[in-house]
Amino acid sequence: MMQTVRRSGVLLHPTSLPGPYGVGSFNQDAYRWVDFLASTHQTLWQVLPLGPTGYGDSPYQSFSSFAGNPSLISLEDLLEAGLVDQALLDQAPVFDRQRVDFGLLYTWKRPLLRQIAEEFPRRASAALQAEFAQFCAEQAGWLDDYALFMALKDAHQGAPWNQWGMPLRSRQPAALAAASARHAAALFSHKLNQWLFYRQWLALKAYANHQGIEVVGDIPIFVAMDSSDAWSNPQEFYLDNDFQPTVVAGVPPDYFSVTGQLWGNPLYRWETMAQNGYRWWLRRIQAALQLYDVVRIDHFRGFAGYWEIPASAETAVHGRWVPGPGAHFFEAVRSELGEDLPIIAEDLGEITPDVVELRDRFGLPGMKVLQFAFSTDATDKFLPHNFTRNFVVYSGTHDNDTSWGWYRTSATDSERDAFRRYFRTDGHDAAWTLVEGAFRSVADTAIVPLQDLLNLGSEARMNLPGRAAGNWTWRFVPEQLNGHVSARLLEATELYGRNPALYAGPEILQNGQE
Predict the structure, then answer these.
(1) Contact residues for 172 (Cβ-Cβ < 8 A; gap 6+)
(2) Is 247 helix (H, G, I), strand (E, B) or coil?
(3) Catalytic residue selected from 29, 145, 298, 401
(4) What is the pLDDT along the chain (514 residues), one digit of tens a residue?
(5) Residue 399 falls in the annotated catalytic set
(6) Helix H or strand E encompassing 314
(7) Which residue out of 360, 399, 429, 494 is catalytically annotated?
(8) Residue 436 known to be catalytic
(9) Is residue 77 flagged as an active site residue?
């Protein structure tokens, strides 16, 4: 993502949007959210991965790298299109306005979407049915496998695909054909959900783009073991003859965990991928750039080297570093997409010189997180005076505590002291001190979580790495986006030169590199 002007934006996952049916969706509240961004001169909206989630509800453990999450489908939009009756929506349970109850949501909304699919041939106009058919034809390269994968998961009571019978596990053609016929109604329902998701999301994205707002998406470097991706492409992963992983992904002990993080994702056979020109990866990135304008690649350092953990390990401690595909991979991406890659490199964690070299060789902006800046000394790379321009600076991310929660409870006494001395503050307004510190910095791009703009504490934290339950549930309510928040954000945007309208001439300097 080659920046030529100073810009800013807000990190907010769509599940955190307001709305009446238990979870944020692509309804009018989402359009009002875009209006808020535009009114405060923000030009970026960053989201987390939008794929369908399973156990644990993590956007980073999706059933597909190509599919969208049906939970985000706007039921109000379907009502307006005549695909569902108000009487059915009136039967919705009473949902918490400020928390997503994923279990309750799943037991109510998924059956409702199945019923909508059953009635679609009767209720949908000829134009909508033609549009759906066209979508199925255009997206067949991933959609057919995904729909069958989800139908088979339902038929196996949610069991992972590598526990199914071997004919289905190994994708024997006769078994796949028989399953497709047996589960035709389920396949139709899953395909319809994807069309509805894509239709609504791309309309919302177009609305944002029309107002000068780009959407920053997120590509996790690894895919879930229990995913259509792994089931459809087993030759691309380190799996044994029974399709069980032999090694899995994670990170060694770091800022977040003394035992590291054992993610459990299957690892790529990069040599196999190189031989076919990284075909699956290029398809994945192209699909992401249909949904987003810019993509953040989570765990970018894995392309230089990744932490390989035996599949039998109980923690991530006893792993080893293994070289990734490096520049050869990004040369293939650049050949496909052009010189200016619309990619942000999530370069947090244990970063070695080869990671920096890879990032800078392709001109990719890295990340700076201000909450990380106060644990060492004046040379800390996360302190603003050590920044150069080609970075995206955050007050915190979805994996951090909120900035107010960080200052009050998560930070150490020495970190709080360093923070106060660095920003010459008594700490009473810590969240906005970090927000303004990000906006004031020399980094071309500043993005802050909505929780920090709302000055919320740890109760609004999105994710605590390593915690098995209770993540990803936070939602805001409309009254929280009041005039005070809008005015303060607009003032910071203007004061620190992050309104792109200020930069209209060719005299813009080229980006600096770290």
Answers:
(1) none
(2) strand
(3) 298
(4) 444 689 999 999 999 999 999 999 999 999 999 999 999 999 999 999 999 998 889 999 999 999 999 999 999 999 999 999 999 999 999 999 999 999 999 999 999 999 999 999 999 999 999 999 999 999 999 999 999 999 999 999 999 999 999 999 999 999 999 999 999 999 999 999 999 999 999 999 999 999 999 999 999 999 999 999 999 999 999 999 999 999 999 988 876 678 988 999 999 999 999 999 999 999 999 999 999 999 999 999 999 999 999 999 999 999 999 999 999 999 999 999 999 999 999 999 878 999 999 999 999 999 999 999 999 999 999 999 999 999 999 999 999 999 999 999 999 999 999 999 999 999 999 999 999 999 999 999 999 999 999 999 999 999 998 787 899 999 999 999 999 999 999 999 999 999 988 876 544 444 444 4
(5) yes
(6) none
(7) 399
(8) no
(9) no
Non-local CB neighbours of 92 within 8 Å, separated by 6+ positions: 20, 21, 22, 108
Cβ-contact 389, 511 below 8 angstroms? yes
Q: Which of 346, 401, 444, 452 is catalytic?
A: 346
**Hey, which residues does 245 pair with through a beta bridge?**
239
Q: How many CB atoms lie within 10 A of CB 158?
A: 10
> Alpha carbon 509 to chain centroid distance?
31
How many Cβ atoms from other residues are within 10 Å of residue 17's Cβ? Answer: 21
The gap between the terminal CA atoms of the chain, to the nearest Å, is 15
